[in-house]
Amino acid sequence: MGGTALSQEQIQRVVDFHGHWCPGLAIGIRAGEFVLREFGRAADEEIVAVVETDMCGVDAIQMLTGCTLGKGNLLHLDHGKMAFRFYRRSDEKGVRLVFDADRLGGPSDAMAALQQKRAAGTLTAEERQALDTHRAEWSERIMGADLADVFRIRPAAGPVPRRARLMQSLACEACGEKTMETRTRRFEGRTLCLPCFERLDRRV
Questions:
Q1: 103 shares a domain with 189
Q2: Phi, psi of 112 (to 5 degrees)
């Protein structure tokens, strides 16, 4: 049977946290729903999320699963993919979800054309309303489908990511700001933070 098993209260909390309703948020909600069903919610760092995008849905994943950037159990890989990996530390089970729009018939051609016009800044007020309607319909299709139709679901490759570590902070010898030692660079005999390293390196 298709459709989300989450309550309207859970969904509304995600919308309130993110700030608006959109298809990207719906994708993240469904990914979070899968984690809750298969792994439960992370009270601390028991579950790890590796997201391959920085799109809206990552907020839903943080809100629903308890995997957060600040705790170090949400890792971002800038791959530009609607793909999410989740691991449970207790048994090292891992799964990778890849959003598959084609399984749901994809967004309409009309919606795609309107989104292109929005990106170009040429939408009329009437077209903006039409786009909002298309986006709402696409979001509802995502929310109403079975999870197996929303994502390609496969075991996650590789080991569970290691736990976050507290690292020593070093003073950048150019700007003086403290920087995590793993984010410093040596340049011309000095320890530099990444922004100072990149600025000085460009001068060479």
A1: no
A2: -60, -40
Encode pLDDT of 14-26 as tens digits: 999 999 999 999 9
Domain CATH number, residue 194: 3.30.60
SS3 92: coil
CA distance 83 to 195: 29
**In angstroms, rounded to a whole number, what is the distance separating the alpha carbons of residues 15 and 9?**
10
Q: For residue 80, give the amino acid letter.
A: G
Place of tokens 């570590």: 165
Name residue 184's beta-bridge partners.
193
Q: What is the DSSP string of 160-195?
A: PPPPP----EEE-TTT--EEEGGGEEEETTEEEEHH
Residue type, 179: T
State the residue for tokens 């997201």: 51
Q: Are 174 and 149 members of one domain?
A: no
Examine the pLDDT at 204 and tell me if it is beyond 60: no
CA distance 9 to 63: 13
Q: State the pLDDT at residue 1.
A: 45
What pTM was estimated for this model as a whole? 0.83
26 membership: H or E segment, kind and range: helix 23-38
